[in-house]
Design a protein that fits this description.
Chain A has 143 residues and is α/β, with parallel strands linked by helices. Chain A has helices at residues 58-70, 88-101, 115-124, 136-142; strands spanning 4-8, 33-39, 44-48, 52-53, 75-79, 85-86, 107-111, 132-133. In chain A, strands 1-2-3-5-7-8 form a six-stranded mixed β-sheet. In chain A, strands 4-6 form a two-stranded parallel sheet. In chain A, a hairpin with a 4-residue loop joins strand 2 and strand 3 (44-48). The radius of gyration of chain A is 16 Å and the shape is globular. Classes of the chains: A alpha/beta (143), B alpha+beta (150). At the A-B interface, helix 2 and helix 3 of A face strand 1, helix 1, helix 3 and helix 5 of B.
């Protein structure tokens, strides 16, 4: 089985009018946004979410997950180990996935949740919906 | 402790840049040592959700966008102001509408509610022609909760 990587790079950046920005500091950069789908078995995949899941790439996330569901996948492990941004639109795309797989007795679980993601999970109490595991391996073994 | 103030004129990359700027501000001032890591993360969430709303929905009436983010430590909380040159909208009405129509496991409509949930004294008003100002505090030692229907 083959992993699939979806990559999005926002257009070139331009930053002006810095009042407090120290020019000796690292210039602000635009990270590449990508996520990778890694098959585990016929019913389960690991989605490595990458740097961000937000309003900029949530539609891509939904499309890739829908493709997986249509191919028979019903269990999703979301790896948040590298994720610095999860916003309301990103969370909405995860709810969308949950609504697709729930009738199929499928699961969406969170693994290796980073601090920024944990803050959103706590704010929205979504730990009541999505089981969390300390590592991807632990999540994969539990499914 | 030094405040943060920065003006952005490029909405294409503002989302990552404002996040990186807040990280650099913390690296420079160690603001998280006084207010806590979680409070700083909640500040990032609040700023991100407002910036996302601006990028997706704001009407700049054909003018080049200008968005100025200011953050100031204020005891055990952080004061934040975000000014922009859009035509603005009725935030209170939008919040009421979002709360009313929020469905189970919602796909949309959580952003402004998330902003409201993790802030105190949230205010949004016009401060001149085509000049809008969002102002709020992020308090430390809180456990905010956006109640989403499950």
């Amino acid at each position: 089985m083959v992993s699939v990587t979806i990559t999005t790079r926002p257009s070139a950046n331009r930053l002006v009018d810095t009042t407090m920005h120290n020019p000796k500091e690292t210039p602000l950069t635009t990270p590449v946004m990508s996520f990778t789908v890694q098959p585990c078995n016929d019913e389960t995949v690991i989605v490595h979410v990458g740097k961000a899941l937000d309003f900029r790439n949530a539609a891509d996330f939904k499309a890739v997950c829908l493709e997986q569901v249509q191919a028979g996948i019903r269990n999703f492990v979301l790896d948040f180990s590298d994720t610095g941004i999860l916003d309301s639109t990103g969370l909405g795309s995860i709810f969308s996935l949950y609504r697709q797989v729930s009738p199929l007795k499928g699961q969406v679980v969170f693994a290796a949740v980073s601090r920024p993601v944990q803050v959103v999970v706590q704010l929205t109490r979504t730990y009541k919906v999505f089981r969390q595991f300390p590592t991807v391996e632990a999540a994969r073994d539990a499914l | 402790m030094a405040s943060l103030r920065h003006c952005f004129r490029d909405l294409d990359n503002i989302t990552d840049q404002v996040r990186e700027l807040l990280d650099q501000w913390n690296a420079r001032t160690r603001i998280a040592d006084s207010i806590g890591d979680e409070t700083l993360e909640l500040l990032k969430v609040a700023v991100h959700e407002w910036i996302a709303n601006l990028v997706q929905h704001a009407n700049f009436n054909g003018q080049p966008p200008q968005v100025t983010v200011t953050a100031t430590p204020n005891g055990r909380r952080v004061e934040c102001t975000i000014e922009d040159n859009s035509v603005g909208f009725d935030l209170d009405a939008q919040l009421a509408n979002c709360a009313e129509i929020l469905e189970s496991y919602p796909e949309r409509g959580m952003g402004l509610l998330m902003l409201q949930a993790c802030t105190e004294e949230l205010q949004y008003a016009s401060v001149g022609e085509h000049r809008q100002r969002l102002h709020f505090y992020i308090p430390a030692d809180q456990d905010p909760w956006l109640k989403i229907p499950f």
